[in-house]
Amino acid sequence: MLITLAKLQSQFFNLMRMAIFIVMVWIGGLKAFQYEADGIVPFVANSPLMSFFYNGKPNEYKAHKNKEGEVVEDNIKWHTQNGTYGFSYALGTSIVIIGSLTLLGIFNTRIGLVGGLLTAGMSLVTLTFLITTPETWVPNLGGPEFGFPYLSAAGRLVIKDVIMMAGGLLCASDCAKRLLDQKK
Fold first, then answer.
1. What is the rounded distance in angstroms from the CA atom of residue 135 to the CA atom of residue 45?
2. Is the pLDDT score of 43 beyond 80?
3. Which of 10, 67, 89, 174 is in the most buried spot, having the most CB atoms within 10 Å?
4. Residues forming a β-bridge with 49
5. Nearest one of 83, 84, 98 to 161, comparing CA atoms
6. What distance, in Å, lies between the first and last C-alpha atoms of the chain?
7. Share of the chain above pLDDT 90, in %
């Protein structure tokens, strides 16, 4: 069994590329829908790396939050003026491209190297939301469990990017090794 697992390592790297591709295309594709665009607002609005993408006053988002699946026309108007949807479409497109580049590492090491590094970089940026977004922690609503280390649903979503970052780095390192082997 050990020998079989060792021989399959290159296929497992390809499986990782496919997994990254599936997650990125699915999540990136959802950025075209109103509920998903509304859902990323707290992350983007609180991020010093991203809040400038929104027009006007992104810190006013709490008054204009839609619950998942909710359609409140006044909130949608605010999000439209804020640039929420345009940013979400651009972000989704970028995520789909990064996932595709990572998958193409199966066939092209240079493209795959770029995709893996971009996957890791994007994941690192996403992980900063744990520091900048208050909604990633359980709020103090009177119970004994709140704040750090108690992750909210948003926080549990974000922390998974540790795995995505590691996967991107594994794919990038595999491509780097293959590039070096080609030069021999």
1. 11
2. yes
3. 174
4. none
5. 98
6. 31
7. 88
- 151 vs 79: CA distance, rounded Å: 26
DSSP state letter for 145: -
DSSP 8-state secondary structure symbol assigned to residue 141: S
Q: Whole-prediction pTM value?
A: 0.93
Q: Is the pLDDT of residue 56 over 80?
A: no
**Residues composing the chain:** 184
Give residue 123's identity as a one-letter amino acid code. S
Name the H helices within the chain: 2-7, 9-30, 34-39, 41-46, 73-82, 84-103, 109-127, 129-132, 153-159, 161-183
* 171, 20 contact by CB (below 8 A): yes
For residue 65, the 8-state DSSP code is: P
- List, for residues 96-108, the tens digit of each pLDDT value: 999 999 999 999 9
Tell me the C-alpha distance between 154 and 58, whole Å. Answer: 18
Please give the Cα distance from 30 to 18 (Å, whole number): 18
How confident is the model at residue 158, as a pLDDT?
A: 97
Answer yes or no: are the C-beta atoms of 25 and 98 closer than 8 Å.
no
Burial 166-177 (b: 16+ CB within 10 A, else e): ebbbbbbebbee
CA distance 19 to 106: 12
Q: Which pLDDT belongs to residue 92? A: 98
